[in-house]
Design goal:
Layout (H helix, E strand, L loop, with lengths): L1 E4 L2 E4 L3 E7 L5 H11 L8 E6 L7 H22 L5 H18 L2
Antiparallel strand pairs: 1-2, 2-3, 3-4
């Protein structure tokens, strides 16, 4: 289950992901992101950070496979809302947050 709250997408209870537009990032943070990816980041690009339990991935092939699975997952998620107007997506997200707040066990 995914819930977006204050710009942070929460996936299940053990992992969280923050997604921001590069232009919304502080300059120092954006600089670090650019150093990590090895290129400039355009203002309209999204920057995602995932935090979760460490998983040991050995070898370049396993790392490439893990990256491929992550990219495929993110592309599927993005495609699901690609044709949804921004305002409608915000409304649905707000409703989901309210539902989760009032139905959390």
């Amino acid at each position: 289950m995914e819930i977006l709250y204050d710009g942070v997408v929460w996936i299940e209870s053990s992992q969280d992901i923050s997604v921001r537009t590069a232009s919304d990032l502080p300059v120092s943070f954006r600089s670090v992101v650019e150093q990590l990816v090895g290129r400039s980041v355009a203002p309209d690009e999204q920057v995602s950070i995932a935090v979760g339990p460490a998983r040991l991935v050995r070898g370049l092939e396993e790392r490439a496979a893990a990256r491929h699975r992550l990219v495929a997952f993110l592309e599927r998620r993005a495609a699901e809302i690609d044709d949804l107007p921004f305002e409608e997506a915000e409304k649905v997200i707000d409703e989901a947050v309210e539902f989760a707040r009032h139905n959390h066990h």
